[in-house]
Specification:
The protein is mainly α. It has one domain: Fido-like domain (Fic-like fold). It is 50% helix and 3% strand. It is built from seven helices and three strands, in the order E-H-H-E-E-H-H-H-H-H. It is globular and about 50 Å long.
C-alpha cells in the first residue's frame, strides 16, 4: 500500500493510510490481498479482450483502473483531484493533470499506441516503453494503485506485440531488499529513464 502526502485526507479512513473501501476492510494485509486478487482478475480479463482494435489510450488506462478495482473503491477509474507527493517526489499538480495527460496520450497515439513492435528490435521497444512508463509515473493520475495499473497497462502492450508480461522479478535485490523498480521510478521523476530502460529491457521476453 502506497503512503502519499495529500493536500487533504480525502480517500482514507481517519488517521490511517487505508483507503475507504466498499468492503470496509480496515486491516492493511487483508486489503492488499483483496487488491491482489482483483488485479489478477484484471489481468485475465484484459488479456482475453485484447484485439487489433484495442487502443492503449487514456480511456483504456482509466478502464483498466475502473474495471479492476471498482468492486473495492469508489474512486476506481477516476483521476485524482488533489496534489500528492511521496518522499521527495511531487507528482504532476492537479491543475496541470488534464493537459499533461492529453499531451502524453497524444504522443502515444502518434506512436500508434506502441502497436508496431512485434518485429522491431527489442531494444527500441524497451526504450519506448520506458519513456512512456516514466511519463505515467510522473503523471500519477489516480489517487491510489498507480504503479500496478501502469504495469498492467504496459503488460497489455507487450502482450499485443507478442511478448510475455514484463518480468520485474530481478529488480529486487535479495540481499538488501532494495527495490530497483522503485529506485528507477524515482529517477523517472528527475528526468532520467536510463535505469527504467535497463529494467524493461532485461524483463522483455518473446512469447513462445
Amino acid at each position: 500500500m502506497s503512503k502519499y502526502t495529500h493536500d487533504k485526507n480525502y480517500i482514507y479512513y481517519e488517521n490511517s493510510n487505508i483507503p475507504i473501501n466498499k468492503l470496509d476492510i480496515r486491516e492493511i494485509v487483508t486489503l492488499e490481498k483483496e487488491e491482489q486478487k482483483l488485479l489478477l482478475n484484471g489481468y485475465e480479463y484484459f488479456h482475453k479482450n485484447i484485439s487489433v482494435d484495442t487502443n492503449f489510450d487514456k480511456k483504456y488506462l482509466q478502464l483498466l483502473h475502473k474495471k479492476t478495482f471498482e468492486e473495492l473503491y469508489d474512486f476506481a477509474g477516476k483521476y485524482r483531484t488533489v496534489n500528492i507527493s511521496k518522499g521527495y517526489s511531487t507528482f504532476c499538480q492537479v491543475r496541470f493533470l488534464g493537459q499533461t495527460s492529453e499531451n502524453i496520450f497524444t504522443e502515444l497515439k502518434n506512436d500508434n499506441y506502441l502497436k508496431d513492435f512485434t518485429n522491431k528490435p527489442k531494444e527500441l521497444f524497451a526504450k519506448r516503453i520506458s519513456y512512456y512508463m516514466c511519463e505515467l509515473i510522473a503523471l500519477h493520475p489516480f489517487p491510489e494503485l498507480n504503479g500496478r495499473i501502469t504495469r498492467l497497462f504496459f503488460d497489455m502492450i507487450t502482450t499485443f506485440n507478442g511478448y510475455e508480461y514484463i518480468d520485474y522479478q530481478n529488480t529486487i535485490d535479495a540481499d538488501n531488499g532494495e527495490n530497483e523498480y522503485i529506485k528507477a521510478s524515482i529517477n523517472c521523476m528527475t528526468g532520467s529513464g536510463n535505469q527504467m530502460y535497463e529494467i524493461i529491457l532485461a524483463g522483455l521476453n518473446k512469447s513462445e
